[in-house]
Amino acid sequence: MKKFSALLIAALVLFVPGANAQLATGSSISVSVVVNVTSSITLSTSGGSLNFDGTTGTTNNIAFATSWSLGPTTSIKLYTWFSSPTAALSTGPANIPASQIAATFQSPGTSGSGTPCNQAFGVGNGVIDGASCSVIDVGRGSDGSTPNPAGNNNGSANVTYSLSILNFPTYKTTIGAGAYTGTLSAIVISI
Amino acid sequence: MKILILAAISFVGVVASAQTVGPVFLEGKIGKKPFKGQFLVENSTVHPMPVVIEAKQLQAVDGKPVFGALLPGTVVSLKDSSAVVSPRSSRVFDYEVRCEKNCVVTFLAGMSGGKNPQGINIRLWLMSSAFLCSDSAKNCRTRTKKAMGLE
User: Fold this and answer.
1) Domain that holds residue A51
2) Which residues pair with B103 in a beta bridge?
3) What ipTM is given for this predicted complex?
4) Cα-flanking dihedrals φ and ψ of residue B17, to 5°?
5) What backbone torsions phi and psi does residue A112 show, to the nearest 5 degrees?
6) Using 50, 70 and 90 to split pLDDT, how confident is the model at A178?
7) pLDDT in tens, B49-88
């Protein structure tokens, strides 16, 4: 009988709801997840938002900052593109096509301006053909050096970046007034 | 004190967004079971960072790399295709890949690089690629790139 009573008490302690609740609230499990990150790329923007000046048709400068810690590779490139070739920027039904916009950029090893953002690199990865601005070779150093295909590659590059509407004095007379908005995407690709 | 406050505000305003993804490359062997891999997305900002993940497959077209849709015979299972990474924190994404032959599957991590209702929104993407070979994981990336003519 004593044995039965002890078992009954033990069962009550184990299975009454209060006992479970107490166990749950009193427990704290710390789980550490370790991922072996042997290579990495960082991409960030700074300098605020890109806004067009209504009198000049150019935006302020922003910066894309990228840094990498990679093994052997042959290229590290930054692609930027709009969501649509025909409607890079829109306000209501009015659109500005990507071909009317150009990026001006300056990285340690390369620079460019005036090329319309209607390039088609055929690289995929969401980079839209016909809505891409010039590709920026961020892996190229100021001395013209390129990534090491046989060794480790650790580095960084800051890219000063702005946009302009081509032939703005003439073009602005053909589009309606409004706040034109759109999305510019950026990706660093290294394989 | 005023200068200090202004400096602090300026600093917060300058760094809009930043993400790190790693590993950028992972090598594995195709086996009977799907290849299990993972990558990490780090949010170094002080704001929560929504992240979406997309899977692509690398092909070589005329000696150029093209990251397109998954090819027939490639099956990717992604545990989470989106998440919100807490400020100054990181998130691990687990995946499984099954390929019938050598393949390169790339996971794109996309996040907002700053919203601007009066102008241009910026979206940032980074990638983590799994190079899978049927014979051995060793030097799979180098061998695959060479076979694709991408070296």
Assistant:
1) 41-189
2) B132
3) 0.86
4) -165, 155
5) -170, 160
6) confident
7) 999 999 999 999 888 899 999 999 999 999 999 999 999 9
Nearest-5° Cα angle at B30, B29 to B32: 125
Q: Is residue A143 assigned to a domain?
A: yes
Which residues in chain A are closer than 8 Å to B122, comparing Cβ atoms?
Answer: 45, 49-50, 62, 183-186
**Inter-chain contact A46–B106, Cβ cutoff 8 Å?**
no
By Cβ distance, the residue of A46, A50, A149 closest to B15 is: A46
Q: Which CATH class is domain B19-148?
A: mainly beta
Tell me whether residues B124 and A44 touch, CB distance under 8 A: yes
| Among candidate residues B151, B150, B141, the one with its CA nearest the CA of residue B59 | B150
* Interaxial angle between packed helices A2-15 and A17-26, expressed in degrees from 0 to 180 and rounded to the nearest 10: 50
Q: What angle do CA B58, B17, B22 make, to 5 degrees?
A: 40
The whole-model pTM stands at 0.84
Which tens digit of pLDDT belongs to each residue from A56-114?
999 999 999 999 999 899 999 999 999 999 999 999 889 999 999 999 999 999 999 99
CB contact (8 A) between residue B123 and residue A39: no
Test the A interface: residue of B19, B20, B24 with most A CBs within 10 Å:
B24
| Chain B nearest-CA residue for A77 | B126
Whose structure tokens read 């090893």?
Answer: A109
- Residue A31 placed within a domain: no
Domain-embedded: residue A51: yes
Domain boundaries, chain B: 19-148
d(CA A148, CA A132): 27
Hey, what are A190's tokens? Answer: 């290294």
